[in-house]
């Protein structure tokens, strides 16, 4: 068994099998007094896109375990199109890291701007609501391998933080 596949006894899957692209339009009810989208609305879409990607990978019901810090790089304006691209980067025994990239598109010019990047962790659940094993991730392209290796490092950091928080309480 290779290092990539020993996370689970289930057959591994390439990240491309979990790939999701969602497109939304920013409506007046989605915006603040400045005419830009509420951050919470973007967070909601990120959670949905991430859950779909994780669910595709696990072929199970998934729940959000955490969302890493969100970095809003540019405003998203009323009437713009919002493209969310999500893909599973790494899977542990029952959890998966999903990378989500959010881009805004000016509908009049076609200009596309990277607006948000996020990493979310989802846990797969069995029929009784308990964590259940998921397939490992089998990266193929150099980009997938890079994302896989970076996700492993982020997971180690998340695990250390969880231990520190648990020790304080």
Explain briefly what this protein structure is:
The protein is of the alpha+beta class.
Structural class of the secondary elements? alpha+beta
Q: How many whole angstroms does the radius of gyration measure?
A: 17 Å
- Spans of at least 5 consecutive residues with low confidence: 1-7
SS element count, helices: 2
Mean pLDDT: 94
Reading the helices and strands in chain order gives EHEEEEEH
**Sheet bearing the most strands, described?**
6 strands, antiparallel
- For the record, give the distance between the C-alpha atoms at the N and C termini, rounded to a whole number: 39 Å
Shape field? globular
What fraction, in percent, of the residue positions are helical? 25-40%
Number of strands: 6
Features:
alpha+beta; 28% helix; disordered N terminus; 2 helices; 169 residues
Notes on the structure:
With 169 residues, the protein is an alpha+beta fold. 28% of the residues lie in helices and 30% in strands. The chain is built from two helices and six strands. The chain has helices at residues 39-58, 142-168, and strands at 20-25, 61-67, 71-72, 81-91, 95-105, 112-125. Strands 1, 2, 3, 4, 5 and 6 form a six-stranded antiparallel sheet that branches. The model is unreliable at 1-7 (pLDDT under 50).
